[in-house]
Design brief:
Elements: E1 2-5, H1 11-20, E2 24-28, H2 38-47, E3 53-58, H3 63-73, E4 77-80, H4 86-90, E5 96-101, E6 118-122, E7 151-153, H5 162-169, E8 173-176, E9 181-182, E10 185-186, H6 188-200
Parallel strand pairs: 1-2, 1-8, 2-3, 3-4, 4-5, 5-6, 6-7, 7-8
Antiparallel strand pairs: 9-10
Helix pairs in contact: 1-6, 2-3
């Protein structure tokens, strides 16, 4: 089970995530309350180098700017939350995680139009395109109709519900941001419990 902790902004949160066993750390470079400057992301990533992969989160950003930030921060994946096309994705240098807001079953049809390394299924877009803490209606996620080896489930996951979500959807991975926060800041205990509960889930 791939576990991704997104919205990392501090050395402490990054260390807690890798110590807990997270596989991927997400750094937000789009408009967000969790936005981070590339230079600080580079410092944090240098401190956990080799212990976890990293992803940069972007929304409709120019490819040249993505490549500039990647070269500063040293990212492993590009995570896209906007209206990026397949041609846009093919022009990027790194593996891609393409995010989709899923509000109804028909939204899943969009996956077939993209060639990406992973598909991140999130709740419908709120104020920000991701990280809104709203859960997907798992009833519309039919495991038999999804490329489960490429699906990362997001949206409203917490240490308390991640195990049941994994059993219901059977994804390749899970992603959390606000679900491991207290008062808008990463909660180290919640990070440990989320990763542990996800990794121990059997389906």
């Amino acid at each position: 089970m791939i576990v991704k902790i997104c919205g990392i902004t501090t050395h402490e949160a990054a260390r807690a995530a890798v110590d807990a066993g997270a596989d991927l750390l997400g750094f937000v470079f789009a408009k967000s309350k969790r936005r981070i400057e590339p230079e600080l992301a580079a410092e944090i990533i240098a401190g956990i180098k080799g212990k976890a992969k990293t992803a940069g989160v972007f929304v409709n950003e120019h490819p040249d700017e993505i490549n500039r930030i990647q070269s500063i921060a040293g990212l492993d994946y590009i995570q896209l939350h906007g209206d990026e096309s397949t041609d846009y994705i093919n022009g990027l240098r790194l593996p891609v995680i393409k995010a989709f807001g899923i509000g109804k079953q028909e939204d899943l049809n969009k996956l077939a139009s993209y060639q990406a390394d992973y598909f991140l299924l999130d709740s419908p877009k709120g104020k920000y395109q991701g990280g809104n803490g709203i859960a997907i209606d798992q009833q519309i996620l039919d495991p038999d109709a999804l490329p489960l080896n490429k699906v990362i489930l997001a949206g409203g996951l917490t240490p308390e519900n991640v195990s049941s979500a994994i059993k219901a959807v059977q994804p390749a991975g899970v992603d959390v941001s606000s679900g491991v926060e207290t008062n808008g800041m990463k909660d180290l205990d919640k990070i440990y419990r989320f990763v542990n509960n996800a990794k121990l889930t059997v389906y």
